[in-house]
Amino acid sequence: MRISNEYAWIIPSCPLVASSFTGLMAFLFPKATRGFRQLCALFNIFSLIVAMLVSLILFREQFIIHSTHQYLWVWIPKSEFCLELGFLVDPITLIMSILVTTVGISVMIYSDSYMFYDQGYVRFYAYLSLFTASMLGSVFSPNLIQLYIFWELIGMCSYLLVGFWFTRASAANASQKAFVTNRIGDFGLLLGILALYWITGSFEISELSDRFVDLGKVGFINPIFANIIILLLFLGPVAKSAQFPLHVWLPDAMEGPTPISALIHAATMVAAGIFLIARVFNLIAMFPPALFIISWVGGATALLGATLASFQRDLKRGLAYSTMSQLGYMVSALGIGSYRSALFHLITHAYSKALLFLGAGSVIHSIEQVVGYSPDKSQNMFFMGGLRKHMPITGTTFLPGTLSLSGIPPLACFWSKDDIINESWLYSPALGLITSVTAGLTAFYMFRIYFLTFEGDFRANEANCIYFNNSSPYLINISLWGGTEMKSSINKISRNSPFAQYLVENNLLSTHLGDPFDSQTRPSPSLVRPKESNFAMTFSLVALALPVISIGLIGVAFVGKTTQWFDLSYELFNYPTNIFECNKNDCFLKEILVNSIGSLSISFLGIFISRTIYGRVQNKQINSVVLKPIKRDLVARLGSFVQTWSLNRGYIDHYYNIWFVQNVIFISKVISTFDRRIVDGFINATGASNFIGGEILRYGETGRVSYYLFVLVFGFMGLIFSLFVVDFPIPPFP
Q: Which of 118, 123, 179, 683 has its CA 20 to 30 A from that of 202?
């Protein structure tokens, strides 16, 4: 089957129509929609499947025609200002559309089970389809104005989905934080777009670099001003893709449902920033100072995200900081000119991170059956452990995602990450060192997550978990259907043990339900165990595990070994038919593996350290790992510092709260006081004076003619008196 590129408009239109139909049905017929809500979900999934099939067909055509097509319609037909709308079809566009649709389908199938009992089930699918439609619209946009419109729609959808459970204060605050932080970046992006139009007179992405070249030849462009414009454009991806210092919204965005976390971190919101840089890369590549700043912002973000993820207790938050770190890799690669490596890593990371987040959602969904609906407990990795025995499919599929993100061959992220590290060393030894250290930290924290979650014994019913959530030793199991069940988390602990003394000294012990150290009075521990998720959720996990295993080998030859500035629309498909074939006694695959010995050694070192600390953690050993007094040596102090740094988010949120939030609140209060006391006071005083004057005059309006005649005669007498009795000076005539 063959489809012309002019039908590419079907791809973003399908989820947009599905979202509009689902939203209207839920709004106009809410009761009827609840009855066939799974049909609405099926319709949304089917529409995205159609979009995926069209993307695959058009992508296959690219192997034959190797062309770029642009279809435009005039929106504002004026001679001075002509704005067009349309869509652009090229290899990058089609690759991104395949990525968005495949990940979106997996998330939608997964959500049918995850959100089944949620009252906002239909609304959730309407938001999901609108989210994917917005991302696909930005991917196919041929000019910056159209791209900016869909860019803002992506931000709006993220606000709606992060705050989906808006009745929870934490979710509402997280959505507002994400929205406000992204407004900063979007404002810079808008200024950059307007400045580009002011200089070049065009919004068309394909014309910008050529016009800059022509204007530069005649000396019309100031290099400093041009670099400022590029950095303003970069400010949009800094916020959208969670780069330092506008990364603070990303971990809080975990307040939304887990399927949304997978979609945001894999194929929509954070990917939009990387795609924007890649789309205007030919323009950015003309300004080395801006590229230098971009590369170091990405490098700093990669290292910062890795350190913040190293000791997180929240499963989703650890993966969120991991996303921040990997996005830093991509931005750094774009800054050093490794264009294809960045896009390759965007694709490999998207599938890996979607698999990891959906796996985390499966774990959380199962843990909630034990500890109740409480994110502080159901997402706390120290309440987990041994889940591979209880959830074999989830544990088995989570491992390839962990290995991939750790950079272990032949899984997906190894090929892209290793090339970025090699290019970083060639560009700058300092940047190469940062990317290499980040690779080791990535392997460490990813296997820390895996060991704490899936290895050892299940710890949710054990006493040692008290330390990690700093709460009462009694866990309240809140049923999803209402009602509570009290169960003791104290088990097999002696009153004279060091851990018991720790509980007593730190007031973590409450005995109002009986003595937890007395076998006669303490409640019996619950033996509830987690169970494997149902077919819809496990099917999505298995489906995503396949590209995580295979896509690296399929796309490894897309990665270039050059940092020259050129358009890679066609070169993206010029790769060997067999990556194992040898040329001049050199094997392509062998060359990659040999060059990756350094990064692999660092990754295996991180895995070894993680296994040494967390690999054999059992219920009786967890105390020695966490509660053990810190030895006064350099390594222990460094580990303690990194742990404190990680748990406190690098203190960045704290300083932002002091420097920005508190100052903004103070200024707002001053302005509010000035408005109430001065502005409103003046207006209110004017109104009050008019009212009092009116009341005074009202008593003079009696309606009696004799009174009015008296006032008239009195007025005439006063006028005559003033004219003839009072001596007014008369000015002389000239």
A: 179
